[in-house]
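Weekly structure sync, notes
Attendees: PL (lead), two postdocs, one rotation student
Agenda item 3: pending single-chain targets
PL asked that the sequence for the first pending target be pasted directly into the notes so everyone works from the same version. It is reproduced below exactly as submitted, 482 residues in total.
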Amino acid sequence: MAGITDVVEKKNTEATTRTARKAPAKTAAKLAAPKAAASKAAETPKVETPLPAKAEASPRPRTAARPKSRPGSVEAPPAPTVEAAPSATISEPSPKPAPRRKAADPAVTVAALPIPEVPAREPITIWAISDGRAGIEAQAVGLAEAVARQVPANIVIKRVGWSGRTGRLPWWANWMPRRWLTPDSGIQAPWPDLWIAAGRATLPLSIRARRWSSGKTYVVQIQDPRVPATMFDLVIPPKHDRLTGDNILPITGSPHRVTSQRLDSEYKKFQDQIDALPHPRVAVLLGGRSRAFDLSALRAAEMAHQIQLPLEQEGGSLLMTFSRRTPDQAKALLTARLRHLPGIIWDGEGPNPYFAFLAAADYILVSEDSTNMATEAASTGKPVFILKMDGQSLKFRLFHQELERQGAARPYGGAFHGWTYEPVDETGRAAAEVVTRMDGGRAARQTLKASRPDCCAQRLFPLCSLHDPSGCSQAPCRQDRP
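Predicted structure, written out during the meeting:
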């Protein structure tokens, strides 16, 4: 029995020894396997094999607890453990960048993008205010129409009338102007968004328009008001008045209603009468008596002679119109001297062919007393000649020099000759400035209103009478106190 037991123990010992020898080999094989896989992946970079999800989520294997050593015993060193760090041990090559795709057709890309909808602007209300005189009303209405070509607008024409002699009072003496207006003036709430006024008769109203509307209305005064410009939002005088300031926009001449579309439409009304007339067609626009100028019979005879000779020599035709200020004697003399020429002489009866004359003319002659007619003629791009009258004025001389500087007009010397220049469009420039300043002022008022407390919401202007800041303790009110 003892011999059999020894043989069994010997076989068990040899098996244990062989097992111990094979364990390091297996461990080395396990360690070499990842390296071989890494080298194989490096050799074939095009095949990208992502790590399995289970390997990334598998928990770290826990090692067996070490038995506590007894006192006096020698503790054997722990067996080295191999921990695999996936980020450092298994390093995959960086993926190659994907090949660039060809850019899509720009037209297709643009069509695919959604186009944002621009909200339509609400129409504004414009009052064009004057005393009803044709030349003054044309300035206010002309600027209003130019603004309406840039933003949606509804234009209302107001003709101011005063009862008795109140309209002759200076602006500072007319304390309650609306009380003395005629019933058909129509100056009452609701107030407009834009107030465009021209003429001295509108000054008492324009000065108070902002206060009446609680700051809603933007007030524009045309011509030199001869009052402080700070009483209005914007003043548009002619350059020859030589006014300057932050809210002053000087322009050449005055605003008017002439546009290419209007000239074409007005010409069609008189086309049957004008088409048969020979060229060159000469339009003669005559003014009359004013503070600085007059048209005497002697000067009218000289003017008729200067017009008749070149027209007869060149075989042209005459398109002549008078204004309400033309003296009757001068009108009769000019008509008698020039009626034999082919053309049209408008005597004030029937439809006014003024704009049709501007459209049909090859040359335009304008008397030097009228700013409106000279500015309207210069807007056509046709040669403009200035006719001399009795009298003189420094302002008008400066105005004509400005037209000459822009290449639009020249003094008339008894002969016609042509040249070209860029049409003068001061009305469009003034309208663009009005829209810009009005929008800027509206945004500033909204910002100011949002920054003030509720009790100060109506305190937008120094002239506002809807809120009394004397008893308010808020900071904005204290700043507004005089």
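Discussion points:
- The radius of gyration is 47 Å.
- The first helix runs from residue 2 to 43.
Action: rotation student to compare against the earlier draft before next sync.
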